[in-house]
């Protein structure tokens, strides 16, 4: 079951990396394009909160991965 657990953790790690990378690219793009498109500041705040939510979700997954690794070490 160790190999299956390692594969699940690896997949979760790939998901975390992908979410962080996509979030940062979209956030930077939105912050650069927003003023050029004439979007009000409240949309920038909305984009910031969406990015923070995605990063918080990533941190939760990282914590779950860490907990799983710690439990695997103890067994």
Instruction: Give a short account of the largest sheet.
Output: none
Number of strands: 0
Estimate the mean pLDDT confidence.
91
Q: What is the strand content? A: under 5%
Q: Which structural category do the helix and sheet elements fall into?
A: mainly alpha
**In whole angstroms, how far apart are the ends?**
12 Å
Radius of gyration, CA atoms, in whole angstroms: 17 Å
Apparent shape:
elongated
Q: Total number of helical segments?
A: 2
> What's the SSE pattern?
HH
Helical content band: over 70%
pLDDT below 50 for ≥5 consecutive residues: which ranges? none
Can you tell me about this structure?
The chain is mainly α. Helix content is 93%, strand content 0%. It has helices at residues 2-37, 41-74. The model has no long low-confidence stretch (mean pLDDT 91).
């Amino acid at each position: 079951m160790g190999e299956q657990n390692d594969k699940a953790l690896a997949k979760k790690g790939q998901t975390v990396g992908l979410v962080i990378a996509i979030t940062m690219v979209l956030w930077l793009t939105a912050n650069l394009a927003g003023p050029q498109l004439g979007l009000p500041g409240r949309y920038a705040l909305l984009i910031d909160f969406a990015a923070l939510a995605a990063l918080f979700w990533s941190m939760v997954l990282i914590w779950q991965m860490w907990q799983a690794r710690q439990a695997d070490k103890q067994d």
